[in-house]
Design brief:
mainly alpha, 0% strand
């Protein structure tokens, strides 16, 4: 059974991260969340009509990470936070 998910992320804050390539991070975040949600279809189907106002991703150590790795880490953090 196909599950339709409408995911809207209004804002991602990068505090103390000058020079970060936000577009590459955003693209990796979307790609990884999509992949994870497709893999976890059973979990995603339980979210019917669920709204979450805020996900606190905590603090991520970004030293030496590519924007793509940052986006993937953020996706994992978001998914763990809403399960």
């Amino acid at each position: 059974m196909a599950v339709e998910i409408d995911l809207h992320i209004e804002e991602v804050l990068f505090v103390g991260c000058p020079g970060i390539d936000r577009e590459r991070v955003r693209a990796a975040l979307v790609d990884e969340l999509t992949r994870l949600l497709l893999e976890a279809e059973g979990v995603a189907s339980t979210w019917r009509y669920r709204e979450i106002d805020l996900v606190d991703g905590g603090t991520l150590r970004l030293t030496g990470m590519t924007p793509e790795a940052i986006g993937r880490q953020m996706a994992l953090t978001i998914l763990r936070s809403v399960q």
